[in-house]
Amino acid sequence: MKSSPGVPSPANISVEKFRFSHAARTAVSKNHCLIHIAAGVLVAIAAATANRVCAQDVPTSPEKHWTAQWITAPGAPERDAVVLHFRKLIDLAHPELHFVVNVSADSQFIFYVNGKESGRGPSRSDLGHWRYETYDIGPLLHAGRNTLAATVWHFGTHAAIAQISERTGFLLRGAGAAESIADTNSSWDVEEETGISALRPNLHDYFAAEPGERWEGKRYDWYAMAATGNANHPGSWAKAVTLGRGSLRFEQDAPNNWQLTADPLPAMEMTEAPPGKVVRTNCAMLSRGFPREAITLPARSKCSLLLDNWQLTTGYPVLTVSAGHGTTLRVTYAEALVDGKGQKGNRNQIEGKHIEGVVDEFLPGGGESKTGFSPLGWRTWRYLQLDVETFDQPVRIEGLKTWFSAYPFVEKGYFHSDDATLDAIWNIGWRTARLDAHDTYMDTPYWERLQYIGDTRIQALISYSAAGDDRLARQAIEAFNNSRIPEGLTQSRYPSSLLQMIPTFSLLWVGMVHDFWMYRGDADFVRAQIPGTRTVLDWFLRRQRNDGLLGKIPWWPFVDWGADFAGGVPPQDENGGSGAMTLQFVEALRYGAALERTYGDAHVAEKYEAAAERAAAAVRKLCWSEQYGLLADTPGQKHFSQHANILGVWLDVIPAARQKEVLAKILSRSDSGFAATGSVPEMTAATYYFRFYLARAIEHAGMGDDYLKLLGPWREMEKLGLTTWAESPEPTRSDSHAWSAHPNYDLLRIVAGVRPLSAGFQKVIIEPHLGGLKEVHAAMPIPQGMLEVNYAGGAKGVEARVKLPEGVAGELLWKGQSIPLHSGEQALTLP
Description:
831 residues; eleven-stranded mixed β-sheet; 13 helices; 38 strands; 27% strand; disordered N terminus
């Protein structure tokens, strides 16, 4: 059987892809010199060719304004759901070594050159920073006639909340005079694709991600993206209509709302992965060998196949079929199976459970040609169920392939020890961090795909520590800065088409900027955020009461999903006075002061420091309960939580002499291995997310050797068969929430003991807390190179070997001693 152009094939090699930094079109720093890899849904990265390309190596045009036009289809919906195909034929007298084009769309595109997929995008942002991708398609062009094509989709009200949009449109601009023949304008052809429509997921919890899709094979134009089209399938093509030229950000009198900026991110990873194994079916005799081997189902039959991928994944399934007129293939994706009560239980168990989730429907058009179905948007699943119902013709399912896709983080850091169970905690955490990072960070790859500040702060620290990659973090920090409303606060999540305000997350964004400064440096980048940190802190300063506590905080002042926190909000008195929120304010003020003293205004720093001291003193005076020796949540002292006490210890609001006692008390309520003296009130426990801040308090109080005792909840999640870390304790909505992956950060920071002493790791502190471990081997990528530590217990104490990159010095702290460290390798005996 011959294949139609819709069939995925490893022969469809994708193009070399250039993704510029924000400094792209003229010159970039060495930090923006990236390795770009040929990658696409149909090509494994392992089989691609890597080329080191810097933005300054790409030909640029001297033109002041772009002449390429945004285009759409005549009569096509502007903001309602629609899928469009665009096509342009260009003639070349000879092959081109380089042919650089900039490509964008609203909302998303897949770009083809001579029938081969060459890229996807654009990365999500807002209209004021609309991304364009840059490709050198020279290797895919030849002398004579060439076809440039793109599929563009806009799902209107069905689109993910993270998708900001103006209206449906497509833009391609040649980067130089020779490439200008490819510019989008009315010479391009366009066709509305009627064979794809959106399916709204029928789920029982908050869902904000991409919809499912319905593909009707009889209506779909399988030849639209082909190199030469097909004379027997001419489609319904018309000349495109223009929407005004593409305009760069900061241009005067731009003709439309898309202010274009070069995408600073690399291409997403796209790697073929095993499709899983059939673990349950009602047609075993017919489906034997699937998905490795083709199966044929007779007319007027039904077959259900449940595949277990053994671990959660993100990416694209590709289902190839032939014949099957009237057949419906329904693909359901789920993180876990559920029982009759909607409970997940052990994720490895399938008996008595069924699948619920996002659904794609594929309807073959019949005929003997193989047809490849793959959704436009990527999917998330551990379990994938294929339900097939045939009509008057048999269907042959040629096979199922899956392509893993996520941000291309490379795992450079590591943590190994004599406790093998920590390897599983590290590996599950790293998988969680990978799946929750694509063209933005996201809280969950299944349910929301929204970049929240509270989640992203933790995700960025994992990226710095385990990957040494700050590109996605830069995107996030800038996105949150760009999200600020006139009152000065950041939005809670961004990009987002739906405004949501969590004022406490704005405080965490100030901390995120400070984290970046300490772990990555880059004074110019940090300095650029200070106008934003000022408006955030000024908003809170205006709400600081005369007694020093914060007043009532509007919108949604989320702190944690505590069991009795209404909507995640700790108690406030009638006029505010939340201890936990005020302490988050103290943290942000101190970070803001440090940033101002280095890059801003010393007078502003003094103002922040004074306000922080007033707030800290107020919490200490008004919320401290002598009866229990703990901080209450408000001056009324009727409610207690771990949260206020965690922050009180970390920020030294609770005196140092009482910090260990306080931590022992609050942990005696939730964790084994901690005992308290005296009475301890009922209190709200921190969930997985806020235990990141618990780790900060444990480290600060000199209890780092107790850190490993805090990992009980993660061991329990592993016993339940989770392959990524959950959003919250059972019953949980999301099985993958990167805010729960912070043990990857703390195994390196607390146990291995690696942390920056000065901005950008110019100086380092090594302070290991091995607990009961006898051996630890760990490494962290820092801006100057790899930092490695090894510890092994011996007769004389701990034998330590530390290797610092060139130009980095610091000190090793051990049982009250300070030992100087220098660049290079050094061996130490720690008694």
